[in-house]
Amino acid sequence: MKMPLLAALPVALIACSGNGPGPDETGATPPVTVAPGGTPSPSPSASATPPATVVDGQPFGRTVIADFDAPWAMTFLPDRRMLVTEKDGRMLLVSADGQQRQTIATIPVDSAGQGGLMDVVLAPDFVQSGRIYFSYSAAAEGGKRVVLARGRLQEAGGAARLAEIEALWRASPAVTGDGHYSGRIAFSPDGQYLFVTAGDRQKFTPAQDPKATLGKVLRLTPDGQPAPGNPLAAQGFDPAIWSYGHRNLLGLAFDASGNLWEQEMGPKGGDEVNLILPGRNYGWPNASNGSHYDGRDIPDHRAGDGYEAPKVWWNPVISPGGLMIYSGSMFPQWRGDAFIGGLSSKSLVRVDLNGTNATKGDQWDMGARIREVEQGPDGAIYLLEDGGESQGRLIKLTPAGAS
After folding, report:
1. The pTM is what?
2. Among the four residues 69, 195, 365, 390, which has the most C-beta atoms within 10 Å?
3. In what helix (H) or strand (E) does residue 128 lie, and over which residues does it extend?
4. CB pairs under 8 A, 24+ apart, for 52-60?
5. How far apart are CA 116 and CA 137, in angstroms?
6. What is the pLDDT of residues 8-37, one digit of tens each?
7. 180 noted as active-site residue
């Protein structure tokens, strides 16, 4: 059943970096009206922006588009405007040139530690429905948990708001602590199913518990119900579970062939990129290519151990935040590759994807914690800085030397 409507109430601004225990977490464009059932009108030309800055011979130039307060995620509307989430609960509608913004919702989140307003994606039928899906952390009886919700974008007279906000799904059980919520969202290519990640909440064993949804990838219907035919329901698992044995899943994306890729933070070492397959066990906390923060060993992934091994892993860590699979024309040499934001590594990481295989590509120093990576409508690559020890800037990457 659907959860009760949420009131878009203000919350107090809490100055948090989003870092939890361990080094891995340590001329404006006028508004354009999008009416449900209608087609967005073209966005007027953006005002002039400064030339891109090329750093240290990197293959792209950087242009700062905007600056936010601890942003977490973003997505583009069909008319090239952007939705940006900020950690303390604000969801912003931002003009295509980054010069105008308005708060369309203030979600009552628990923003302590790694909590806050997290991912945001458009419904596959957004042009008709105006629906937006998002995730956030919230207090509950027994502790805190990640929540999946949706609302409907409504615009009139130049003002916009997110209306009809409803919680669709909540991770269980609620537990104490402020870390490893995860909360990434991806729709299947056919638009029929909704995948969402729930982290282990730094509790380890729930990732292997068939009744808990912590440490899992979940497959739901667009209304937040367990999707029919999920692979483990007949074995007594929670019927929403698609895969399990995960730690802190902060990236989720489909490639052009329909393969589902995920990245997650390992402990002390062992950050992973995984190909997510139905019903598979990815090993946490029984297997990892990292170690516990106190130095205790964790058995490495090995052939025949019964766990799905990562396709790529890092030691030392990159602290992955955000995952995008590139499909644009601005960087044709990278089409089909995965891009990951690096938090503690302050980097942008490229992974070569080849069918169901992956290998490490480039790692570029960005000089700031990168929380989110998105592809723009024009094929540019957009980065959101974490807003913790670095700024919360939105940076557009274009080919070096391009005008």
Report:
1. 0.88
2. 195
3. helix 126-129
4. 52/396, 52/397, 52/398, 52/400, 52/402, 54/400, 54/401, 55/367, 56/365, 58/364, 58/400, 59/399, 59/400, 60/331, 60/381, 60/397, 60/398, 60/399, 60/400
5. 5
6. 333 332 333 333 334 344 433 333 333 333
7. yes
